[in-house]
């Protein structure tokens, strides 16, 4: 079957030349020489335009992430630090500048997901309307070698306990803007009041009598709150708020690129009159709520979600039920417009128009500390027969990712 597929897509040069000759002759008979050369000229112009678009996209991509120097790539830091250059570039291309904060949180279990970070966002640089400026923020709960996950890392690190901790600067494929870590022991102290008032009163939604699953969930919410605060601090320092925020975990492997259309739709809403704040959530792993592993869209709505640690007790008290990640996510978004002191309110106190669109997109798989990949959860019945290699990959490796994501590049 594989050999047949290979030959089916192969174009024999003699057949191709024969077809080209007869097509050219037919075109000349129908349209004459002027029509033929006009067609050839238009085709040449379109090719030049496509080449120009590729060069523009590459220029934006290199400005966002890395700079080549002496054969090596150097991280450029925050894209917004070079905002005047982006603005000048956008003006020359007849586009508008849109700033994007990529917010990652939780545990950096394995650096495999970083290998395709740039490619995940590669479609953004092909936008015909906007120049996207990306900044990467990450907060990690730091685990030491004595922890269970740390023990797994010791094995991965060849038995050396000194290599069991995650060193953020091992993640060389992440464009650096702002990084922060907090020892997990300190995180546990910080979330203990919420744990006592949620699981301590209403139990664990995952039937864990030790409240361990709820504790892990609260740890993740704590990390989201910290990366939220880091973004706010950077906005305060630069005196500019981001337009779009993408909330995503670092311990997952994306098996598809993030689609440009959702970024362009969000930006369209922000430039519309009246302003529409659009957000997008995956339609899989919802569990009677909203997927809580990925969320993107207009800044205020996503930032509101990232600070939901503040309202876990209120949710449990109002619903008289245990804290459950997906249903809590839905509750936070459903009550967004009525939330007191919500970031949704404008300076004048009026609200923005706001929407959550659940879409069949944003495909990723969970990544373990030993580079093992959890099975894909995003397939609909009709898609199971059309899986791509990354949907079935058992163990994540840099060489395999390079092999299967070649066509993701610009």
Detail the topology: elements first, then pairings.
Blueprint: H1 2-8, H2 13-64, E1 66-69, E2 72-75, H3 83-93, E3 96-106, H4 117-120, E4 130-142, H5 148-156, E5 178-183, H6 184-202, H7 212-238, E6 244-248, E7 252-254, H8 260-271, E8 276-282, E9 294-298, H9 299-306, H10 312-319, H11 325-334, E10 353-359, E11 364-366, H12 389-392, H13 398-404
Parallel strand pairs: 3-4, 3-6, 4-5, 8-10
Antiparallel strand pairs: 1-2, 6-9, 7-11, 8-9
Helix pairs in contact: 6-7, 6-10
List keywords for this structure.
single chain; 410 residues; alpha/beta; seven-stranded mixed β-sheet; two-stranded antiparallel ribbon; 13 helices; 11 strands; globular
At a glance:
The protein is α/β, with parallel strands linked by helices and 410 residues long. It contains 13 helices and 11 strands.
């Amino acid at each position: 079957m594989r050999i047949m597929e290979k030959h089916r897509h192969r174009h024999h040069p003699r057949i191709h030349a024969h077809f080209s000759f007869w097509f050219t002759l037919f075109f000349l008979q129908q349209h004459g020489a002027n029509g033929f050369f006009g067609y050839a000229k238009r085709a040449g112009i379109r090719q030049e335009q496509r080449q120009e678009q590729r060069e523009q996209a590459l220029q934006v991509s290199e400005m966002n992430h890395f700079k080549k120097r002496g054969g090596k790539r150097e991280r450029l830091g925050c894209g917004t630090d070079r905002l005047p250059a982006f603005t000048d570039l956008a003006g020359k291309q007849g586009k508008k500048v849109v700033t994007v904060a990529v917010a990652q949180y939780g545990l950096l279990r394995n650096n495999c997901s970083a290998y395709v970070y740039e490619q995940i966002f590669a479609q953004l640089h092909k936008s015909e309307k906007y120049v996207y400026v990306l900044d990467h923020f990450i907060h990690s709960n730091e685990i030491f070698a004595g922890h269970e996950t740390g023990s797994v890392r010791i094995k991965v690190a060849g038995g050396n306990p000194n290599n069991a901790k995650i060193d953020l600067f091992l993640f060389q494929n992440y464009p650096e803007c702002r990084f922060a870590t907090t020892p997990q022991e300190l995180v546990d102290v910080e979330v203990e009041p919420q744990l006592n008032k949620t699981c301590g009163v209403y139990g664990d939604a995952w039937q864990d009598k030790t409240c361990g699953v709820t504790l892990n969930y609260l740890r993740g919410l704590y990390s989201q709150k910290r990366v939220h605060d880091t973004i706010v601090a950077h906005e305060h320092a630069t005196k500019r708020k981001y337009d779009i925020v993408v909330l995503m975990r670092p311990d997952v492997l994306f098996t598809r690129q993030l689609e440009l259309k959702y970024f362009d739709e969000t930006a369209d809403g922000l430039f519309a009159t009246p302003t529409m704040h659009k957000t997008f959530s995956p339609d899989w792993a919802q569990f009677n709520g909203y997927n809580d592993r990925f969320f993107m869209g207009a800044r205020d709505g996503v930032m509101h979600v990232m600070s939901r640690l503040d309202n876990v007790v209120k949710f449990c008290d109002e619903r008289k039920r245990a804290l459950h990640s997906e249903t809590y996510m839905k509750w936070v978004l459903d009550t967004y417009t009525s939330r007191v002191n919500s970031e949704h309110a404008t300076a004048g106190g009026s609200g923005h128009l706001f929407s959550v669109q659940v879409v069949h997109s944003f495909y990723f798989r969970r990544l373990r500390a030993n580079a093992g990949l959890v099975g894909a959860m995003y397939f609909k019945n009709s898609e199971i027969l059309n899986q791509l290699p990354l949907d079935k990959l058992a163990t994540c490796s840099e060489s395999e990712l390079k092999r299967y994501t070649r066509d993701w590049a610009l």
